[in-house]
Amino acid sequence: MAVRLGDDAPDFTADTTEGEVHFYDWKGDSWAVLFSHPKDFTPVCTTELGTVAKLKPEWDKRNVKVIGLSVDPLSAHGDWSKDIEETQGAAPNFPLIADPDRKVADLYDMIQPNASDTTTVRSVFIIGPDNKLKLSLTYPASTGRNFDEILRVIDSLQLTAKHKVATPADWKSGEDVIIVPAVSDEEAKEKFGSFTTIKPYLRTVPQPS
Ligand code: BEZ
Fold first, then answer.
1. How far is the CA of 68 from the centre of ligand 1 (A)?
2. From CA 209, how far away is CA 184, in angstroms rounded?
3. What is the pTM of this model?
4. Atom of ligand 1 at shortest range from CA of 46
5. If we measure between CA atoms, which residue out of 24, 21, 53, 13 comes closest to residue 128?
6. Is the pLDDT of residue 113 over 90?
């Protein structure tokens, strides 16, 4: 059964490159990104894991813990990590789940049989401090993910969890945001001071801090 936005992210216990992880205990009240890979020792995955490792300061800045998953066993993850360090300049600095019995992959519906019935697709789950699912993405095996986009979404999720705003197309942190329609003009004045009305339903304001 697919996990949908707003659902509780399923909890699990799994073997990882950093020891046994009890997901909710490991995550605590941080944000989390859980992302899956089709297989170890594959070229696109190798670049993705190096990229995620090099972004550690960005995850830390946002209070985000990252955890990867591949259906291969722990012994393979260890050897592959050395290759990732050698070829990408950074070894994974986050846990990588070994899921040979597909326990976690099934919980999160990461196996999509019409794509492949043996390997996980490239899933991304962003989970909030309340353990609810905030975003899910599914990429095919042939397309490496854009992790700057994942960070951009986290910036939007964290901002919109705090303020009654939404973020427009291609928004980046620091740019103007949209006042949500449920906020009246009077309330908007109170909350934000001045704002720009382009249409009654399209009102913008500098990003609140
Ligand atoms: C890759 O990670 O490079 C990959 C994995 C499965 C199919 C195609 C590419």
1. 15
2. 21
3. 0.95
4. 2
5. 24
6. no
Token code pair at residue 42: 């594959």
38 lines ligand 1 (CB under 6 A): yes
Among 20, 30, 154, CA closest to 97 = 20
More confident residue, 32 or 112: 32
Residue 112, pLDDT above cutoff 90: no
Backbone phi and psi for residue 130, each to the nearest 5 degrees, phi listed first: -85, 10
Does residue 1 register a pLDDT over 80? no
The pLDDT assigned to 24 comes to 98
DSSP string, 96-144: EEE-TT-HHHHHTT---TTT-SSS--EEEEEE-TTSBEEEEEEE-TTS-
Distance CA 110, CA 35 (A): 9
Q: Per DSSP, which regions of the chain are E strands?
A: 13-16, 19-22, 31-37, 64-70, 96-98, 122-127, 133-139, 165-166, 177-179, 196-199, 202-205
Neighbours of 144 (CB within 10 A): 15
Q: What is the mean pLDDT of residues 3-20?
A: 97
On the question of pLDDT at 192 being above 90, the answer is: yes
Mean pLDDT of the chain: 96
Q: What is the rounded average pLDDT of the residues 57-77?
A: 96
- Could you tell me the CA-to-CA distances from 174 to 15, 72, 160, 201, 203 in Å, in that order? 39, 40, 13, 22, 17
The residue nearest atom 6 of ligand 1, judged by CA position, is 141
Q: Is 143 in the pocket of ligand 1 (CB under 6 A)?
A: no
